[in-house]
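FW: tagging you since you asked about this chain on Friday. Here's the raw sequence from the shared folder, copied in full. Didn't touch anything.
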Amino acid sequence: MNERLTWEQAPAVLVKAVESKLGPIRKADTVLGRRPGLAARVYGADDDAFIKAIPLGTPAAWFYQREQQATTLMQSWSPAPILMWELMTDDWLLLAIELVNDHARHVDLRPGSADIDPTLNALHELSIPLPEPRPQTAAEWYRAKWAKAEHMLNLSADKVPSRNLYEQAVEGFDFKRLETEAPTLIHADLSRRNLLIKDRRVVAVDWSTWCIGAWWIMPATMAPAFIAEGHQPWEVDVLLGGVSTLWRSVPAAEVAGLAAVQGLLHLERAMFGPAERQADFRLLAEASRKWMTYRLG
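HL: got it, structure written out here
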């Protein structure tokens, strides 16, 4: 399977399984995405849900299983969708996730936006430690990503602006610093694209790449999203102080090292990723470079 299915293409066994939970389907809207499988907002006679499904034998099933794990860990108060129920039928994994993005929109992070305070509140609420450590750790996750980011440093200088700053930021950076004795559930791909707002409630969606690590990772990796929308790095630093009073105690070198990894990944995607997303990734790569430079200073 290489393409995402539409709801109309869903196997009859999946439709029957969904109807057994939601009642007869009144409407279903397919959600397009880069991964195969099925994703749709489904409206039943008895209930509504965001449905995700994937054959268990495909490589992309890993991402769906990761989201299954993350949504299981979510607390009812978390600013994230919870897992309503799950089924395995005819070798398909079927997830019904709380439908939070019905008539919602992406957050507006531009300076002066009314969405900024709710977004910071959501980051604060997502920074609550979990009751016990669970895999996969942020150190493992970002160390794996570093293999791809490090490749960018081997390209010519004209393709990697400020390469010496990236090298300075990651010199001596220890991925173990991303771990903590009070681990937090980390959304490792948090951006404006997966932060939705409705009635001033901000919700983080798509937890297929989550990991466990230090609470400050999410605020730190969200900084380029604010910068890309027009904030200055020092202004973002002030904003993130509203996420936690502990933000000021996070060593600048740790934030800069993580920003370097993140920026190089954005740069790699800007050069080699899907054509329709390359402009977005270039913007985020430049914002990450500014954030890294500021924290190094």
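FW: The chain has a mean pLDDT of 87.
HL: agreed, and Residues 252-272 form the longest helix (21 residues).
FW: great, closing this out.
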